[in-house]
Amino acid sequence: MTGSYSLIIDGKQVQGAGQFPVRDPATEAIVAEAPAASLNQLDAAISAARRAFPAWAALSHVERKAAVLKMADILETNAAELAELVTREQGKPIGGLGSQWEIGGAVAWTRYTASLELPVETIQDDANGHVTLHRKPIGVIGSITPWNYPILIAIWHIMPAILAGNTVVLKPSPNTPLATLRLGELLQQALPPGVLNVVSGLNQIGQAMADHTGIDKIIFTGSTATGRKVMASGAVNLKRLTLELGGNDAGIVLPDIDLDATIEKLFWGIFLNNGQTCAALKRLYVHDSVYEEVCERLVAYAANIVTGIGLEEGNHLGPIQNEMQFNRVKGLVERAIIDGVRVLCGGAPRKGEGYFYPVTILADAKDGMAIVDEEQFGPVIPVIRYTEIDEVIAQANASQNGLGGSVWSSDIEKARAIAARLECGSVWVNAHGAIRPDAPFGGVKQSGIGVEFAALGLAECTSVQVLHS
Ligand code: NAD
What we know:
By secondary structure, the protein is an alpha/beta fold. The chain has helices at about 40-60, 60-75, 80-90, 100-115, 150-165, 180-185, 205-210, 225-235, 260-270, 290-300, 325-340, 370-375, 390-395, 410-420, 455-460, and strands at about 5-10, 10-15, 20-25, 30-35, 120-125, 130-135, 140-145, 165-170, 195-200, 215-220, 240-245, 250-255, 280-285, 340-345, 360-365, 380-385, 400, 405-410, 425-430, 445, 450, 460-469. The longest helix has 20 residues, at about 40-60. The N and C termini lie far apart (about 55 Å). Nicotinamide-adenine-dinucleotide binds near residues 210 and 223. Nicotinamide-adenine-dinucleotide binds near residues 147, 206, 226 and 230.
């Protein structure tokens, strides 16, 4: 399982010019050494993708769709191995809402993506002329992924890109490269050489991709700070960009929330993947009349949640994925305590090996505290009291981010009307973060540019050509 890993360049497994260790966040032990691509190897991967592009773009949609469906089958056949690898390097549990669920989602997303089409649109067809709109592949797409859902997010990038006729150079996060390298190796069975290349390396490989004129578009998922760098560097050749960036999603609980019906969804909307989910609920605004009750119910639900080693059965949540993120979460909570929050559960890391941090619920949080204003990306929720709905909507919108949001109420019409006033790309009523492959997903404001999923997401992997004849 922990074996050896190679770059995938032009259909072949290639040894990295160097290597770097990948750590198991549950034990801090090294899972395996990952290959570190040199800049020359990145060039080779981009050249291979450029060479493969004309023939891949020239295939029919039906032929490329068949390849995408074959990739779904390969993923499904190898799901157990990939899930175990994700758990070893990422930390999340194998079962529950963990790595098997992630790989299952990747299979479902791949199959759904294969069903998408971008038919020719007729703009004019009469005696005066014929004008049609065609979708063309862009060229070489660079995919840069984060460490929270390494396989699922890679699938979100590469499947629409490949279906639309592009070729790809994929760079996983240095924290979680192993499952992605193995994925790249397995998927070669469905693709001609050079259509999908995988280069792991440290952050400078991502920067070199953003700088590279051989890449026509970048699909990037990661932090807003890095997204800005990708955008600035991409200007070198006017790269097309899809940026899926950080979020600081607000959830607003109205006085008439049905807690029996929604507490489970509320908890997992916050703590899915240990809060290391882009569109997780990260600031919870609760009306004064139900404030203490909501806090108590969340704490009661949390009491049944077991955090532990992902490979061991019965654990609902694993460790935080890496030491830097662990220290950030720890620091934010320490500061929040100094700022005056009330710790209802958790509040300090578990002693011993591994980056384990318990589910932490912080009452009496206020806007202006770092734990509220910044993205914590960990198993911690600040709960903020409000009384006026207009004020709380303004508070929810007072953020540079605009990824997701939610409203919790038993009056669906009232909740919808409030949801419509939230400045974010996705907004849910009595749920949070429930994404699906047939609904476009993306951030507004500094949470991103463009969308993924559905026909709109596929369209972002194409350029428009209008034929006047
Ligand atoms: P990150 O920005 O640190 O890294 C993301 C990727 O960018 C990694 O592969 C990294 O190696 C690469 N990278 C680093 N420096 C680079 C540079 N200068 N140029 C190009 N690439 C570079 O993010 P992370 O810590 O891996 O992920 C956590 C963040 O991702 C959170 O903010 C989270 O909200 C966000 N995220 C967003 C979505 C979404 O869909 N909007 C999904 C998942 C995660």
